[in-house]
Design goal:
heterodimer, A: Rossmann fold, two-stranded antiparallel ribbon, 6 helices, 29% helix, 29% strand, globular, B: Rossmann fold, 2 domains, nine-stranded mixed β-sheet, five-stranded parallel β-sheet, 10 helices
Chain lengths: 252, 318
């Protein structure tokens, strides 16, 4: 089975964001692999271990974070890692999806896995937009992909813990939320080894398709402090106040 | 103005609150623009649930045994054809596990702009929307080129009760024939219940990404034990396999309303807030002063949870 994994770098969700006009101030922002893409890669590697085949990881852009992501994918067990062209506007999901679809389309993968969503997908989910461009069947919020005869048995999660099982034939694009197992850990030395053992393959950015048709006119931090009474002082003061709240509610 | 089309989702014999929220939102938009509201319901059971969508002017019913309750590929194809036929100015889809399989594919196939993560839509001066990005840490206003678009709406965009009430829309059958599908719906599975039902607890100590590693869970467990409460968690903790699935609070987990909900290192992504915002008292501990959790919390402290946890544990045990 030939599997492609589409990966993206997103602003580190634990960082404090600063806004510069209509975008984040990206100068000092840290980027990390989109956590759902990490699950997509894990599910791809699990499938490869079960039934064989190849896993190719793709990411758009040439930033250090993108290189790091791809080297990590190799260190974890991907057969190939490809950098697609130059950096593009991270909020332009259509161009990202077109770049992925046009790059992987001719290779004719059996299965394309990517994260179900990314925190910056204002114009739609890249995985599903790519599925539409490729003309492949699609499914989002996938929590398990297992080999089943000449196809796959795929579990999709709804809400309140309800799931549904589907039979999926090839080719297909799946938006993974959670891999069957937590994404594997890989030692830094292995990543370094992947880095040293060769440069990443890269392909040119295809012609841009759909230009963005929605425009950000204002960006702001939401009013987060309005509801909460903020506790001042150090951890001792905070613990004392929380103790008082618990006592007053009669739960301790 | 042209019509407003909504995607009404249903699962397990129930039309979801998210669908009623869309009807309420569509009614507000229709009142200001004079548009008519059409609601589409597709798949096995659609025919018997359609009457609940009376808040719409027209209910487009796509009953189908072949598609099952929900077939990502098939439902998206039927709904995309509807957009092509009915040419709505505004199409509203819930940003849910079902809507995610509909909105992007419909947008790409019909070549309409899609605005995702929407909190609100405005049609007074062209089409515009307010959206959340980066896990709810940033809000943006967006303007759409042209006079047609699809909006994927977050939970809470309008009142579900408003969408349930009133109306007696006329029903119309729609074509549900689709080309051969690569996806076949098999069956639904209800969640297994574990030893602890977090939805029934008075106090919950909920941990998030800020806990950093599995080794640190023990310290959170000690605090929870000192309070006499179970540990709950946001999705990243469950996805890592650090706590069982039945401890998950939020959109894909459980909805809880305890007396006290103490969060440690939870930033408050919209998916999490959906599952706990009605708790009586919410206390948030987070090192990021911008964390959206402070927007719904009643009490907050900005600081390191690893400093806080032993202090409170000592205070409770001392």
């Amino acid at each position: 089975m030939k599997i492609a994994v589409l990966m993206r770098a997103v602003p580190d969700p634990v960082e404090e964001f600063e806004i510069d006009g209509e975008d984040l101030d990206r100068d000092y922002l840290g980027f990390v692999l989109n956590e759902f893409d990490d699950h997509a890669l894990e599910e791809a590697l699990l499938l490869k271990e079960e039934i064989g085949g190849t896993v190719t990881a793709y990411a758009i852009g040439s930033a250090d974070e993108v290189e790091q992501m791809l080297h990590t994918a190799i260190a974890k067990g991907a057969d190939e890692a490809m950098m697609i062209g130059e950096d593009i506007d991270p909020l332009d999901a259509h161009s990202q999806a077109a770049a992925f679809a046009e790059t992987i389309g001719p290779v004719a993968y059996d299965l394309v896995l990517s994260g179900v969503q990314a925190s910056d997908e204002l114009e739609g989910q890249v995985a599903m937009l790519a599925a539409a461009s490729l003309g492949y069947p699609h499914m989002s919020v996938v929590v398990s992909v297992k080999p089943d005869g000449d196809g796959l048995k795929v579990t999709k999660e709804y809400w309140g813990g309800i799931t549904a099982d589907y039979r999926v034939s090839f080719p297909a694009v799946l938006g993974v939320q959670t891999a069957r197992e937590a994404p594997r850990y890989v030692a830094v030395a292995r990543i370094k080894q992947a880095q040293d053992s060769g440069t990443l393959a890269s392909v040119d950015m295809p012609e841009r398709g759909n230009e963005g048709r929605i425009h950000i006119t204002a960006m702001r931090l939401p009013d987060t402090g309005e509801g909460a009474e903020m506790i001042e002082g150090d951890e001792e003061a905070a613990a004392e106040k929380v103790y008082e709240i618990l006592s007053a509610a009669g739960v301790v | 103005m042209a019509n407003i089309l909504i995607y009404a989702e249903h699962l397990n014999g129930q039309v979801t609150d998210a669908s009623f929220e869309l009807i309420a939102l569509a009614r507000q938009l229709a009142d200001s623009t004079g548009a008519s509201v059409e609601a589409a319901i597709i798949g096995t059971g659609a025919g018997s649930l359609a009457y609940q969508l009376g808040g719409a002017d027209t209910i487009l019913v796509g009953e189908s045994n072949e598609l099952g309750e929900f077939n990502p590929q098939g439902h998206a194809a039927v709904f995309t054809d509807l957009i092509t036929d009915r040419k709505p100015a505004i199409t509203l889809v819930p940003y849910t596990s079902i809507g995610m399989d509909i909105a992007s594919v419909a947008a790409a196939t019909t070549d309409l702009p899609l605005v995702s993560y929407c909190l609100g839509v405005n049609a007074d001066d062209g089409l515009s929307a307010t959206c959340q990005l980066y896990g709810g840490k940033v809000e943006v206003d967006v303007q759409v080129d042209g006079d047609r678009a699809i909006f994927a709406m977050l939970s809470g965009c309008a009142s579900a009760d408003d969408g349930r009430s009133g109306g007696a829309g006329s029903e119309e059958s729609i074509d549900v024939s689709v080309p051969e599908l690569g996806i076949e719906f098999l069956y639904l599975t209800e969640p297994e219940t574990g030893d602890i039902d977090i939805a029934a607890e008075e106090v919950l100590v909920a941990i998030g990404r800020g806990i950093e590693s599995e080794d640190n869970i023990e310290e959170a467990q000690e605090l929870a034990d000192a309070i006499g409460a179970p540990l709950a968690a946001s999705r990243p903790i469950i996805d890592q396999g650090w706590l069982p699935k039945d401890r998950q609070v939020g959109k894909s987990g459980l909805t809880v309303k305890p007396k006290i909900y103490l969060t440690l290192g939870i930033s408050g992504a919209p998916e999490h807030l959906e599952g706990m915002r009605d708790s009586a008292i919410i206390i948030a501990i987070n090192s990021d002063p911008q964390a959206p959790i402070f927007g719904v919390a009643h009490y907050g402290w900005v600081g390191d949870l690893f400093d806080f946890m032993p202090e409170l544990t000592d205070r409770l045990e001392g």
